[in-house]
Design goal:
Blueprint lengths: L1 H17 L3 H18 L5 H16 L3 H19 L4 H16 L3 H22 L5 H9 L2 H13 L6 H28 L3 H21 L11
Length: 225
Amino acid sequence: SNRYYASSLNNLALLYYKMGRYETSKAYLIQTEAIWRKSLGVKHPDYTECLNNLGLVYQQMGQYELADSFLLEAKNIREQLLGRFHPDYAASVNNLAILYTQLGRFDAAAQFWAEAMNITNTLLIQSARFLSAPELSAYVQLYQSQLDHYYSFALQTHGKLPAMNAGCYNNGLFHKGFLLNISSQICKIAATDTLATEWNNLVKSYHRRLAVQYAKPIHQRLEVE
């Protein structure tokens, strides 16, 4: 069907993006956007992914107004569709922070960086409730690139945005083993007796179920309450 053909086009676009062939990537994404807009509608996660990818391509091509437009549209639809505490929305905020840093719009970038880090840290705390220590460690690594960009922005704006100093300090403490220590403490407490272990496993199972639901669009989530 057109929908799955568009998925193939989107995958090719991502491949050419990674190869640095941005014109080719853009051409495939424009086709993808037209098909998904017609077959899925604009309030669909796949459609927002295409908008986001187009924004990233235009950014690499130096067409910053178009990049800003597509990235903002993806962010706004994702907020309505998925909510603010969803990895896709967090990715949109992170991408806008990087774009505005590149454009020297530091005040706007700082606001997006603060929001991105807040969402990421919240997602990590939620994950600590049901992931094992090795799983949590691997999950934290997914956000290492974001943290590197954040520190780079702080260095670039050193002395211009005093609030960044506190942000760097807080995020440094947060990411230096805090989550793993919390997870380890919970496991030790849960292992003190059989009943505690059973209750801990039950609570973790509920958090896993919640995580599955929160990964879906808001209107498709079931039994969250």
